[in-house]
Amino acid sequence: MSQLTLGLPGQVTVSVVVPCRNEARHIRPFLDSLCHQKLDGVEWEVIIADGMSDDGTREVLDGYRRHQGRLRMIDNPGRIVSSGLNAAIRAARGDVIVRMDAHTEYAPDYIRRCLEVLERTGADNVGGPPRVKADTFLLRALGAAYHSPFAVGGSRSHDINYEGYVDSVFYGCWRKSTLLRLGLFDEALVRNQDDELNLRLTRFGGKVWQSPGIVSWYRPRTTFASLFRQYLQYGFWKVAVIRKHGRPASWRHLVPGAFVLVHFALLLSVSLAAISGQHALLRFSATAWVCSAGLYALACLAGALVGARRSAWAVFPVLPLLFATYHISYGAGFLAGLVYWPLMGSQTSPPARLFTEITR
Q1: Which helix (H) or strand (E) holds 38?
Q2: Position 239 in a domain
Q3: pLDDT of 202-217, one tens digit each?
Q4: Which terminus of the chain faces fewer neighbouring Cβ atoms within 10 Å, N or C?
Q5: Both 197 and 316 in a single domain?
């Protein structure tokens, strides 16, 4: 692939692509951080694909667009992230595509760092691990959980200090030619479209690189219920990605589903044994479940100790609950996907709103 030359004006053009829908509460801080990018000598544009917002988002975008000539807004009638990204990429004039998100704020040198890492490493996709924007107690706890290896299965993309090759990065920065060669994002996926694109890229011999010097701050879900639903959807759509490619990107993606399945089977066995009066099976199943649940509780406490020591001891009591929320929701969604996709995946009707409606 051709190398970028950042030292001379006009050698590289950049298109920032942003999918959004109903982001009136969050989009101003994002736009402010975007407008303050330090890109002297680089020609760049911003294309925001709006999923037909009806909460005032479009009015906010219009206000910024009047003062920022490089900002363009296009419609995304598909109303999901993958269709919005594809529409923006097709409309982009830049040699390099930088993907951004409306729930994230970016360091002033974010885009320039992406370009420098893309050139320095020769990778096909580069990005940085997002920090959590933690301005409340729960968000501080979420940040500690989000960066905990125990919560995310040791994924390096959640490690804010890791630099090197990874399976996937958040958001991403590519040469446009790379995305066109891959066929852009899969618009059949409501979730996990980034992971699927990176899986396609690496299976074709491409490289994905993470650099902690590419800095951003992500605003996660602010309630247990919204976090549970988010990861329920991640697990559900992960099955669609695995079915498409015939294998998981990492075996760690299977662990939460196996965890939930084992506990469900043991509790079902306890219930059936109690109803049927099979006392030996009841004792065995109950003992097995108590031991399994006890070991998991101890693991959660150990993970919480490590996470609180790295973050703040005040969040320790909340971390085990957050770990359980991550694992159970993802695992339950994965099992739902194992049932749905083989039986209903070929149907024209989409999955239930529980698995398709993206909410904050």
Answers
A1: none
A2: no
A3: 999 999 999 999 999 9
A4: N
A5: no
